[in-house]
Inverse folding.
């Protein structure tokens, strides 16, 4: 946890405030919408599952550069 917190502090120091969103996933679409200047996706519930199948798909796409 200490390494994670240290990394977060480094990012806060390096990234200009106007380009950095400090975000907790429980906040849903709204902070993302405002930060990215995009509408909330219509008909899309905010992803809330943290299941192995979802993670596996995410990891596969990330490795393949299709994210």
């Amino acid at each position: 946890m200490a390494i994670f917190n240290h990394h977060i502090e480094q990012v806060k120091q390096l990234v200009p405030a106007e380009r950095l969103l400090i975000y907790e996933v429980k906040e849903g679409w709204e902070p993302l919408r405002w930060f990215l200047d995009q509408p909330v996706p219509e008909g899309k519930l905010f992803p809330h599952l943290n299941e192995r199948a979802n993670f596996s798909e995410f990891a596969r796409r990330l490795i393949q550069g299709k994210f």
Summary: Residues 2-63 form one domain. The longest helix spans residues 2-14.
